[in-house]
Amino acid sequence: MTIPRTRLATLVLAPTQATLLQLPRALLVSALALALDVVVLILLKERCGLPPVAAATISYLLGGVVQYVLCSWWVFPTQPDNAGTGFVVFLLLTLVGLVITDGVMKLLNGHTHYLVAKGAAVALSFVWNFTSRKYLIFRRGSAAA
Q: How far apart are CA 40 and CA 45, in angstroms?
């Protein structure tokens, strides 16, 4: 027995093609991934003594996995035909975001607190991540979808 979905539940829970709904969902997913990213960054930097860029790399990749799972489940309605291929393409595009993150972290290292640098990196990499995922992975007719 299935419980019928109300229109509001469908609007809130079901993946959508509408960019105006995808964007806030992607922001929420990014916020959750960022929370994990920052906690791991701080733990790796402060507790484990890793350099800021190395810690940011590891924490960013963990956040990327969380983003893939949540984007696949909630943000974008079109899924890759092959989950493995979709994840590999997602990972490759995420690596571009990682290059952006590491570049900003390196550029600002020594000039500002590492968490301020991380904030700047997050803003720039979000733009890349959302755009590349929406138009290259989770769209009808893409190689990954």
A: 8
The C-alpha atoms of residue 5 and residue 12 are separated, in whole angstroms, by 11
pTM over 0.70: no
> Residue 124: which residues within 8 A CB-CB, separation 6 or more?
100, 101, 104
Whether residue 14 is contained in a domain is answered as: no
| Within a domain: 48 | yes
Helices marked H in 1-145 — which ranges? 7-13, 19-42, 52-70, 83-108, 114-132
Alpha carbons 69 and 104: distance in angstroms, whole number: 26
Report the chain's C-alpha Rg in angstroms.
17
Q: Give the number of domains in the chain.
A: 1
What are the tens digits of pLDDT across the range 67-89?
888 888 787 766 666 677 777 88
